[in-house]
Amino acid sequence: xxxxxxxxxxxxxxxxxxxxxxxxxxxxxxxxxxxxxxxxxxxxxxxxxxxxxxxxxxxxxxxxxxxxxxxxxxxxxxxxxxxxxxxxxxxxxxxxxxxxxxxxxxxxxxxxxxxxxxxxxxxxxxxxxxxxxxxxxxxxxxxxxxxxxxxxxxxxxxxxxxxxxx
Length: 166
Prior knowledge:
It is a single chain. The chain is 62% helix and 6% strand. It starts with 10 loop residues before the first helix and ends in a 13-residue tail after the last helix. Mean pLDDT is 81; it is low at 161-166. The longest helix is centred in the first third of the chain and has 25 residues, at 11-35. It has six helices and two strands. The relative contact order is 0.10.
């Protein structure tokens, strides 16, 4: 990533460009980790489904579609594939049996744990090369960023972000 000059009139512009660069690099790291976790690797879209369901256990297909910004047939196909590999289970709703509630299986939770461990190892290695002050500033900034992203999606803010240390 390059050091971009900060325009005093638009300080967010440089931050947006840096975050964009960071996301592109993280996508490369994430894909490497995803492909090595288990025999039936899941697609990026399927991984997003797993992460959303993990954070919102029991959500229904409609809510999942809204969070993904995807059409119902696409969401159903994603869930079909995840159920076929044993990562997802569907259950009838408690109040309305026509509603389908989604949950991760033990295998789905284990897959996410392995994936997160591989990704965290890659991030730990990268962050070890940063000065301590930069790691601390990054932790604070990312906690605020995650809260801002989660808010409009009506997702709970990731737990413990503000208490993590660099």
